[in-house]
Amino acid sequence: MGLLTALEGGFGDAADALRIDGRPLSREQLLGAATAVADRVAGAPALAVLAGPTVETVVATVGGLLAGVPVVPLPPDSGPKERAHILRDSGATLLALPIGTPTPDAPDGIEALPVELTARSSGTYAEPEVECTAFVLYTSGTTGAPKGAVIRRSAVAADLDALAAAWQWTAEDTLVHGLPLFHVHGLVLGVLGALRTGSRLVHTGRPSPEAYAKAGGSLYFGVPTVWSRIAADEPSARALATARLLVSGSAPLPTPVFDRIAALTGQAPIERYGMTESLITVSTRADGERRPGSVGLPLDGVRTRLVAEDGGPVPPDGETVGELQVAGLTLFTGYLNRPDADAEAWTADGWFRTGDVATIGPDGFHRIVGRASVDLIKSGGYRIGAGEVEAALRDHPAVADAAVIGAPDQDLGQAVVAYVIADGVVTGDQLTAFVAERLSVHKRPRRVVLVDELPRNAMGKVLKKQLLDLG
To answer: What is the CATH number of domain 376-470?
Structure first.
């Protein structure tokens, strides 16, 4: 059985088996166009995909997977510095994008590959080896440039099968979401999941409450920001009462939002936990208890443990916190070109250090408490490295220094806030625009506070927990 089982037949094929931002596509059309892409990319070291919410993103991704070429999703709003780093670091030689889309500035040696939806190929491709690389997914670290997590085909298959079992996800479902297609949640779960289980897929483009309400799905994916907006729109929330499963992830779902969604739809949301490096590892079950603040139990094939600061075990008492470490079939193989990062990420006995702090109860239920570090910000479903934003701010000629944190925000979960020591005349709006021109737009500061100095310890490290006291 291949990775994309639904493309092998046997599931039926409606004309709108996939609908991406209003544009329908049958699985037969997808396979034909994707095979034509595979013909053009076969043998390439990697295929970058300008991963907007488009049919072309899906066709290009599937084409790369058919050809056994690692797919590198590129955020469509990435700034030139971030884009250049991802393209160079990944080794991609081709950049797939919709016909008519202006080719973004890219390093020398990158060839644009317009995706033709009407193109067809009679070629066939043997299923690549399961241990081949499916994706190189770039994730913002706490310092420096984004790191490329290398994800095997076997990890994707294992994760999707485990989720299908946990969520009772079948070909009878219609999956609805409007999540970015350059992240695990939107692309791996939200597209490949449908192409493996055979479920119909509706991607709404923008994840608005109205769009979710009109889609008529049985299975919905969203991040807390999406669910918060739906909870505030009573007619749209009530329209989801016919769905059988509402899944939230990427950040903790606030309990008031959990409760309101449950009240308006008649069912409590499912919460799950994962990372780019591990895919989804822990989740509430479709037929199990849905407990606010809890992400449930490890998936099949996944093991978890909590480790104290001294390296010792943490008791599963539901109260004692420890760093969450995971092992199992869904894990990445390592960071591309970053042996230093690999050394920090893995324990000597082969467990992945997530950097998240959690508790585990006597019944095995997991609760994610927060980051071990304060430097990874979860805002609107995005994971943003504070160090990357700080580096961009420091590139401004009027900035002497900067520190960035995630401040609590009712809508976004956390908002990016920058504290800046200016070495010249500059405004917060100018600095926000400066960052948005260099990094993905969602990484821009939502607020900039100009300060005379930053609180530091004796070693010169900024005391970020004190920054909110500055205003």
So the answer is: 3.30.300.30
